[in-house]
Amino acid sequence: MHISPYLNFDGQCKEAFEFYAEVLGGEIVFMSTFAEAPDDVDCSPGLKDKIMHAQLKVGEQIIMASDASPQNYDIPQGINITIGVDTPEEAERIYEALSEGGTVRMPMEETFWAKRFAVFSDRFGIPWMVNCDK
């Protein structure tokens, strides 16, 4: 069994996934626009060039996503995508890159359970946690 997050974006899915692939060392294994969908798929006119479905592989993990229509997009809340890393240096690197232009709720610091831990939303509004266990 695999459990994978599915992210919805407000029109920035392609940009976000290219950024995540670069920062996380992943590979976009699938990305399709609404225009590439079969004719019987109903989509809003403004979505033709937006992403209908994308998959990003990072190690053995998969993150999936799409662009939501404006009437169906909600800012993510009540969840965080958590990245566990092995070294404080890797935690710092990922935090610096992903948090740039975003909103930091807890800056990178040492905690009683972690050598490094941070909570933030990136510039696309996606909430993240970066954790390097002690």
Structural class: alpha/beta
Major β-sheet, in short? 4 strands, mixed
> What is the helix fraction of residues, given as a range?
10-25%
* Mean pLDDT across every amino acid position: 94
Please work out how many helical segments DSSP would assign: 2
CATH topology tier name of the largest domain: 2,3-Dihydroxybiphenyl 1,2-Dioxygenase, domain 1
* Structural domains: how many: 2
Distance between the termini: 28 Å
> For the CA atoms, what is the radius of gyration?
16 Å
Tell me the name of the CATH homologous superfamily of the largest domain: 2,3-Dihydroxybiphenyl 1,2-Dioxygenase, domain 1
The count of DSSP E runs of length 2 or more, i.e. the number of strands, is 8
Percent of sequence in beta strands: 35-45%
What is the CATH C-level name of the largest domain? Alpha Beta
The arrangement of helices and strands along the chain is EHEEEEHEEE
Task: Describe what you observe in this structure.
The chain is an alpha/beta fold and 134 residues long. It folds into 2 domains: 67 residues, 2,3-Dihydroxybiphenyl 1,2-Dioxygenase, domain 1, CATH 3.10.180; 53 residues, 2-Layer Sandwich (Signal recognition particle alu RNA binding heterodimer, srp9/1), CATH 3.30.720. 18% of the residues lie in helices and 39% in strands. It contains 2 helices and 8 strands. A 4-stranded mixed β-sheet has the order 1-4-3-2, covered by helices on one side. The chain is elongated, with a radius of gyration of 16 Å. The chain starts with 5 loop residues before the first strand and ends with a strand.
